[in-house]
Amino acid sequence: MALEMPASSCGHGSFLPSRRGNDWLGRALSLLTVTPYDSWKRAHALHHASTGDLSRRGSGDIHTLTVREYLALPRGSRLRYRLYRNPFLLIVLGSPLNLLLLQPLPSGVGLPWRTAWRDVLALDAVLLAGLGLLALGVGGVEPVLWVFLPVISLAAWIGGWLFYVQHQYEETVWDEADAWDFHRAALGGSSYYVLPRVLQWFTGNVGLHHVHHLNSRIPNYRLQECLDVHEILGCVGRLTLRESLGCLNLALWDEDARKLVGFARVRGLKPAR
Fold first, then answer.
1. How confident is the model at residue 125 (pLDDT cuts 50, 70, 90)?
2. Cα–Cα distance between 232 and 251 in angstroms, integer?
3. How high is the mean pLDDT of the chain?
4. What pLDDT is attached to residue 1?
5. Which residues touch 51 (CB under 8 Å, ≥6 apart)?
6. Helix 19-33 vs helix 4-11: angle between axes, to the nearest 10 degrees?
7. What's the whole-number mean pLDDT along residues 229-247?
8. Residue 231 pLDDT > 60, yes or no?
């Protein structure tokens, strides 16, 4: 996960002075993050441009319905959404599946299909070649998979959880398109995940997500410096490790209360006519 933030900074062109240097470093890091760099770079840019906008949901975020939308669904669709938002299915099963099977697919990233497929296939080819060489060196594929799959799954669980709490917390912000504001969405809709220093270092300052959304041109290694010199940034969207566990129950945006709520909040309610 510590590599994800440098890769993110490369995608925003902020880790190194040169744009070309950022892109090539990002592609090199993609071998370790198992993520096609150019496709992810495009999807991540869309996420930054639309986070907190109810009219542009679906670009690099976790699918979130409003209370009214959920109540208006037929029973079967409600059940599918409840299954999707189940923490076990969403994070424990979903994170590794997304990393290994869904994320490498080039659909929906806004790139020409030739460019997207080239990005994905190039990464796949290098990864297969690398794993193949390892298999030759240790005497078979099985020992490699016994190391590779658990490590990737663990990284996916940690990354999936961190990605979840970056925007899925009670006091986050969502607005309709006519009321949406980039800076309000960045500061109000992105969490400041207060981690112990050692975890903050290992995760590359990923918990300072509100600062990252406010200005993605700030490299990850300078996010803490920005937090230290602007007192207000330390007071916005604070979320501790203990508080973050309560986020698992949240699943719906309540338009009236203007906060994320759990399914228990809407039990027994009927859709407005």
1. confident
2. 28
3. 88
4. 53
5. 61, 167, 185, 186, 189, 190, 213
6. 150
7. 93
8. yes
Cβ-based neighbours of 98, under 8 Å, separated by 6 or more: 156, 160
Predicted confidence (pLDDT) per residue in 40-75, tens digit:
888 888 889 999 999 998 777 899 999 999 999 999
Task: Report the pLDDT value the prediction gives residue 42, as an integer from 0 to 100.
Answer: 82
Question: Cα dihedral angle (206, 56, 233, 162), rounded to 10 degrees?
Answer: -20
Nearest to 163 by CA among 231, 212, 106: 212
DSSP string, the chain: -TTHHHHHHHHTT-SSS-HHHHHHHHHHHHHHHT--HHHHHHHHHHHHHHTTBGGGTTSSS---EEHHHHHTS-HHHHHHHHHHT-HIIIIIIHHHHIIIIITT--TTSSS-HHHHHHHHHHHHHHHHHHHHHHHHHHTSHHHHHHHHHHHHHHHHHHHHHHHHHHH-STT---B-TTT--HHHHHHHSS-EEE--HHHHHHTTTTTBHHHHHH-TTS-GGGHHHHHHH-GGGGTSSEEEHHHHHGGGG--EEETTTTEEE-GGGGTT-----
Q: Which of 20, 8, 116, 14 is nearest to 60 (CA)?
A: 8
